[in-house]
Amino acid sequence: MDILELIAELKEKNDSKIVLLVADGLGGLPDPATGKTELETAATPNLDRLAKRGVCGLMTPIAPGITPGSGPGHLAMFGYDPLKYVIGRGVLEATGVGFEVGPKDVAVRCNFCTLDAEGRIIDRRAGRISTEESAPLAISLRQIQIPGVEIFVEPVREHRFVVIFRGDGLGANVSDTDPQRTGVPPLDPVPNDYESQRTADVAKRFLAQAREILAGHPKANGLTMRGFSARPNLPSYEYVYGLRAAAIAVYPMYKGLARLVGMTIIGNPSNLGEEIDLLESVWNDYDFFFVHFKYTDSRGEDGNFAAKVQMIEEFDRIIPRVEALRPTVLIVTGDHSTPAALRSHSWHPVPVLLVADSCRPDACQSFGETECLRGGLGQFPAVYLMSLAMAHAGRLGKYGA
Q1: Is the pTM of this model over 0.85?
Q2: Other CB atoms closer than 10 Å to residue 380's CB: what's the count?
Q3: Residue 323 neighbours by CB distance under 10 Å
Q4: Residue 356 host element (H or E)
């Protein structure tokens, strides 16, 4: 019996409310000049106050030493073992923009990029091109035709868009074309099994035609493909947890993952303040609320320590509005660490703060990596975060006689 089966067996109904506030990429590494991480550097009076009331710890998204992508990181927080339930980035992006991925579909998350005259990548994100500029470019790629395959192209946000190939004999096991560095050309799509050979061929033909269409653009004159994937089968939040679950996020990928596990997507917010507005407006309609904040992650990926600190401080300022709703359980954490020093996701455990009347407060006096290291939750796998939330909400019965 895995953890989801156990929770499904033990779940109980009541009127409790659970809020999961996720600051994407929250964890960091110390600044050599101060010895403090981004979270420890930020002025977070509200989170620090809650740390004194609640219980803290550190959460390992996948396994020690394994760096998670955003999909596996969130899946683990939602209680699904990411080593068992594998969801590709393409499906997350497609589902996030409301595209219904079918049984013959392979979805691919794409990034516009900037290429030099020799075809080498000089900017992997096309200068973080605006959505207003990138959406028409994505739509222009709908003119691409490949015999025997239906092609759908959907804008996502900023430099991101998603392509869906639909047809017979399309496997999803194809390597990314993003080399994850500049100064080199994009990689070719390479199949990793026989069933995916046709998909790789289709992707190669799509890329060639797209390159011709985009050739004249000053920033987005190329693209890379990541996360070739097919739709997975996941047990729903309603079945496993007995929760009416709502998801509030700005970026489509996180909406997509939430939709795949059966959450209802609330509104179309453009910033954190609007997300909390939506939380307040639907408070009486749901039992569980997932609220996602992206920019702690993106500033870490930019390598901008100070900007990540500012984003954490912005996140802290909305805490009183969430507290005013009087959630039974409030959890603050991240899906993974994104230290500015590394400019990327990392394997480092993520700080966790849980506040509930039923929690056992520890000695932590602030919310940061060093304090969480000695917190009462200890270090635990992320797949147990939801069982902790359910238990503190009084929603889990006893196991055994």
Answers
A1: no
A2: 16
A3: 15
A4: strand 350-356
